[in-house]
Amino acid sequence: MTGSYHINDTASYHREWLKTLGWELTVTNALEGAASPCRSILDKNGSFGDLLADHLGTLIPLGSISSVLEIGGGYGFLMRDFLRRVRVNKAAMVELSPVLLNKQRETLKGFNVTFTENDFFSIGADFFRDFDLVLMNEIVGDFPTICDIDPAFLKSADSDIDPVLGRVKDFFTALGLPVPEGPFNINTGAIEAVDKLCSAGVKYIYLSEHSCEAKVPENMQNRIKIESTQNPERIPLMGHCEYTVKFSYLVQVAEQRGYRVRRGQYKDFITFPYTDRVNFILTSHSQKDEHEIIRQFIEDLYKYEYMVLIREG
Length: 313
Fold this sequence. Notes:
By secondary structure, the chain is of the alpha/beta class. It has one domain (6-311): 3-Layer(aba) Sandwich (Rossmann fold), CATH 3.40.50. The protein has helices spanning 11-17, 27-30, 48-56, 77-85, 98-107, 125-128, 163-175, 188-199, 247-256, 276-283, 289-303, and strands spanning 6-8, 67-71, 90-95, 114-117, 133-137, 145-149, 184-186, 204-210, 234-237, 240-243, 259-265, 304-311. Helix 3 crosses helix 4. Residues 12-23 have low confidence and may be disordered.
């Protein structure tokens, strides 16, 4: 039995597309620069890295962090802001794109950071054991996702199984996952990334991405439209696509590896008062550029989830 599926693997796209810089309006990029319209609505006018550092400081002892690694660091904004706040003995970036790696070097000029051009999945576990904290911000949706899987093979005892589907079956068996009722997608790359870092024994792991399980509070549902599909969805972007992430699977991986998990949404640490201006932006359907940007930004505060993994003991 082989079954049917296809694999979304963005590594090949990134190797070609990221020979030149493209801009993706992530939450990190949306908060870059003090004049960003998105900052104008916040309780604290800060960059993404600054706001995240505030939040991480309530969850883990940042003063004890002596080494930090960021995987897929984009333009380097998060690492820059983190190093402004936390003194470490060792900081490093791992990036697949040589162009983005050069941009990170520019952004992080003046900081003592090492840069490695490599595919995360090609790096041995020993490399990660040297770091107290690993950051994967808005990147795991770019990792391989296996799509359009017929769940019938999960119930089959047939030993003649495609290796890719065999790996999916191993995930379901190891994690004790319920069998989906219909065709489904699974973020195998994100699952393997979490398992790899946990197996390496990294003390603290932070990751975030668009979630297929995110929800909006009842009192905001008539203002912010998010569909919680429970199945990773394709997000088409310039030159490539990524998938939303099923965070509940990642939680189970981390917990099985002996990690305590704090899971939430960006709105936990990027907060804003619900003013008359915000209400107008969310309810008026204004086509003003600034209003459209802020609407998308507020939606992302609910659509993005994060996890902080803390190694027990």
